[in-house]
What does this fold into?
Amino acid sequence: MRETEVLKMVSGVRRVELRRWVDLGWVLPEKRSGELWFREIDIARLRLVREIRRDMAIAEEGVPTVLSLMDQVYGLRKELRRLAEAVEAQPGQVKKAIAQHMRER
Amino acid sequence: MAKDPYEVLGVARDASADEIRKAYRKLAKENHPDLKPGDPDAQARFLEAQAANDIIGKKEKRARFDRGEIDAEGHERAEQPSYRHYAEAGTDHPYHSADGYADMGDAFSDLFRHAQAGGRTVRMRGGDVRYMFDVDFLDAAQGTKSRITMPDGKTLDLAIPAGLRDGQVLRLKGKGAPGLGGGPAGDALVTVHVRPHSLFHRHGNDIHFELPVALYEAVLGAKVRVPTIDGPVTMNIPKGSNTGGRLRLKGKGVPGGKSGGRGDQHVTLRVVLPDESDAELETFLEDWSKRHNYDPRSGMEA
It folds into this structure.
């Protein structure tokens, strides 16, 4: 999605703000033939940044830390879910052994 | 997309159920197809009013519409997927971070190796950090180097350029918050306040200074020592000088930096009598005033 369409879709974000957030690396759209191209995740990320700045009133200096922590948590959650799926796929004996181990430690 | 039902019925957002019902009945009567056969506009208005009444004419639906859960056509509004929805969906997006488990030991990182290979690290520039700093008048005028200690105990070396103005902001590149994922650090922005000086006052690049002179120096003329921001210099007080008389020390002002050359020091004279009354001076002036009458207030109308 192009910048202009993004601005129409995400209310309350001005063009200068959007550009600054891209410059700061908070939102990472692709560059397609010299134009910024926003994927769905970029738009969701833009909404998140807007909420962090507006609704949570977090100062600009604090935003990278917040974003980084969120991305770490989401990265962890994703891997945790994969791990749980991997455990789930094991034979009953193995699952039991793992559950036993987790209770004891 | 259908129009806002409140607009269609011409009622306020906080209209009572009764008001809504009356507004709908009025529109329905005016535009009913049986009463206005063959009028397509009326029919459209009738259908519109009916659709609007379907939503805000019913207590439950109206509440859901007000909360944004359904749209003007009564359809469930698709919830906008949260950032987390996308962030957790895969590792092949630029925001993916493996930092949360990067240091969890070999067995664990082996399991997740593919994930780390998949994601790019986000590079983010660190934020700018603001500081305040007070500097003495003479240090700001002449330029100086200063070291400030930041809240985290680190120090910053600050070069105060000669002629720095009160409130000027110095930017120290890369001395702000550290970047993330190898991104560059932000800048430190130091707002410098210049403390006022008891003798020197700055106007642009000029220094204004008031010089007390003795009665005899003013009357007879003298060479006196005058402080400047570079240290004292000798200045000639011309014979017959008076309080308020202005002299100029060229080039003894503040360096102009990019905006131009150095300013001047303007010296305003103030004639000062001796601290204690002096019998000899009184006798002399009594005698003198009899023969040299002058009125310093001539032309002053009370």
About this structure: Residues 3-57 of chain A form one domain. The longest strand of chain A covers residues 30-32.
